[in-house]
Specification:
single chain, Growth Hormone, Chain: A, 4 domains, three-stranded antiparallel beta sheet, 27 helices, about 0% strand, transmembrane, MFS_trans_sf
Length: about 575
């Protein structure tokens, strides 16, 4: 029952979630239908990483310009920033259900435009449309699920949105692999995303509006009908009463005043909630997760794996671990708590990023040398910078790949890829000649005996990130704001997430070129440590608390540094006071 925190709830939340939804499949239907928005979010995040490999092959201008590659990835993020910002206002004005329907329509249009794009410019336009839909869905889906979930299993059900995000990412890698040999490769990869958007549009037409939003708009009878479908008969009247008291208190306090930024910042509970919620969303991106998801195959190639198909196949492992981690989150989020899970997650992420920084330092410092004999074997295609070099004997693979007038590639030794190879002009003709002699062709990274360690580092990063930082920021943001401000604050937090995402997506490849992959991951590692300290100081534990109780806690809470100790339940505090 909402308003009471049972002692056994934490220990059995996962089992209770399945038990309650099995008895009342209506709750599960609401959660998974809205959660398809998470699937769209995840699919778009993952699919572009594989599609980009083939877009570079089709459009040579994209292959030559790092900024254009980053723009194709990040323009969807730019659209998502606008979508999230508008989505916050739309959620409060027209409701959660209508916002999801509009998001589906925009995503479908974007998928069609991308699949038919004749040039990079129109492809970018399609990415913007998809981004608008993803941005709206990213903050609306968990909000809808949270408001349609009983308090006991709210965290577990909102985690299904996180599971569908990671499930969408895993699905995108499978789709990428399925179409690697099909005509049009990347067009199929991007266009097929319209199908889940169409499915969710149909399902949401058959579902009701959020009961909490209806209550706020004075449509109490409609809300009560839905709440009676969600809650058991002995709990529903208590939930209705709690909602009524919460809404009436807000109306008395705010009157008819309009929501504005100054109002948000002057309200103590909202201000504290925004610091925690926005901060989590920013750190979620700045620890580098979407560099892994957007550029995973490219990172694998930087680690020394040459083939597009091999890079996609190995990236599938990270996507699978990400999906598995979100399942783990469903179990632990209401058992362990949001804060403790965040801290464990950030600690592991920092360690993993340190490992990646070390591995990439080794892969770039110890690369095969360029052999004059191997290069002369392809005498008509020798890299011009190598031919004119004053000391060609000092050239290794990495120096060959950095040559830019014109671009050059490294054709590995036919007997052992770690032996000296040839530095040649980079074009399709030379690539085919290299492959015809059963040699590997490198343009992104160099052969390395440490490449497998990079895969271990990526796997550890995902294993630690996904259960905590992957889902908890969205859950905390769906719980921490007062009802009246929830849509707007959720929009602000989601917008902060997407702005941070844009900064990372638009700068990652440029950073790796400017300072190296090793230093780039080291910067992410330092940010992870700062994020860990932020969680300790600013993020409250909201596990198992009804939304009304969270408001009271934000109003009076002190910093809880000893996060490993259980907080007193509201009932215990009252009994001690008596």
């Amino acid at each position: 029952m909402e308003g009471v925190v049972h002692t056994g709830t934490d220990a059995s939340a996962f089992k209770e979630c399945f038990s309650l939804t099995w008895k009342n499949p209506y709750v599960l239907r609401l959660a998974f239908s809205a959660g398809i928005g998470g699937l769209l979010f995840g699919y778009d995040t993952g699919v572009i990483s594989g599609a980009l490999l083939y877009i570079r092959d089709d459009f040579k201008s994209v292959d030559r310009q790092t900024v254009l590659q980053e723009s194709i990835v990040s323009m969807a993020v730019a659209g998502a920033i606008i979508g999230a910002a508008v989505g916050g206002w739309m959620n409060d004005r027209f409701g959660r259900r209508m916002a999801i329907l509009i998001a589906d329509f925009l995503f479908f249009i974007g998928a069609v435009v991308m699949a038919s794009a004749p040039n990079p410019a129109l492809l970018i336009v399609g990415r913007v449309f998809v981004g608008l839909g993803v941005g709206m869905a990213s903050m609306t889906s968990p909000l809808y699920i949270s408001e349609a979930s009983p308090a006991k299993i709210r965290g577990a059900l909102v985690s299904t949105n996180g599971f569908l995000i990671t499930g969408g990412q895993f699905l995108s890698y499978l789709i990428n692999l399925a179409f690697t040999n099909a005509p049009g490769t990347w067009r199929w990869m991007l266009g097929i995303a319209g199908l889940p958007a169409l499915l969710q549009f149909i399902l949401m037409l058959l579902l009701p509006e959020s009961p909490r939003w209806l209550f706020r708009k004075g449509r109490e009878e409609e809300a009560k009908v839905i709440l009676r479908k969600i809650y058991p008969a002995d709990d529903v009247e208590k939930e209705i009463q709690d909602l009524k008291e919460s809404v009436e208190a807000e109306i008395r306090e705010e009157g008819c005043a309009k929501i504005n930024m100054m109002k948000l910042l002057k309200t103590k509970t909202v201000r504290r909630g925004l610091i925690a919620g926005v901060g989590l969303q920013v750190f979620q991106q700045f620890v580098g997760i979407n560099t892994v998801m957007y550029y995973s195959p490219t990172i694998v190639q930087l680690a020394g794996f040459a083939s597009n198909k091999t890079a996609l196949l190995l990236s599938l492992v990270t996507a699978g671990l990400n999906a598995l981690g979100s399942i783990v989150s469903i179990y632990f989020i209401d058992r362990t708590g949001r804060k403790k899970l965040l801290l464990i997650s950030l600690f592991g992420v920092a360690i993993s990023l340190g490992l990646l920084a070390g591995v990439f330092h080794e892969t770039t410092s110890h690369t095969p040398m360029v052999s004059r004999i191997q290069t002369s074997h392809f005498s008509n295609y020798t890299c011009r910078d190598y031919s004119s070099a004053t000391n060609p004997g000092a050239w290794d693979c990495m120096k060959c790949l950095k040559a830019s007038s014109p671009d050059c590639g490294f054709c590995a030794s036919p007997t052992d890829k770690l032996l000296p190879g040839a530095c040649l002009l980079s074009n399709d003709t030379v690539k085919d000649l290299c492959h015809d002699e059963s040699r590997l062709w490198y343009t992104r990274g160099c052969p390395s005996k440490y490449g497998w360690l990079a895969l271990v580092g990526l796997a550890l990063y995902i294993i630690f990130f996904s259960p905590g930082m992957g889902t908890a920021p969205w859950i905390v943001n769906s719980e921490i704001y007062p009802l009246r401000f929830r849509g707007v604050c959720g929009g602000i937090a989601a917008t902060a997430n997407w702005i941070s995402n844009l900064i990372v997506a638009q700068s990652f490849l440029s950073l790796t070129e400017a300072i190296g992959t090793s230093w780039t991951f080291l910067i992410f590692g330092v940010i992870s440590v700062v994020g860990l300290l932020f969680v300790i100081v600013y993020v409250p534990e909201t596990k198992g608390l009804p939304i009304e109780e969270i408001e009271k806690m934000l109003e009076t809470r002190s910093l809880h540094f000893r996060f490993w100790e259980k907080s007193q339940k509201p009932q215990e505090k009252k009994s001690q006071a008596v």
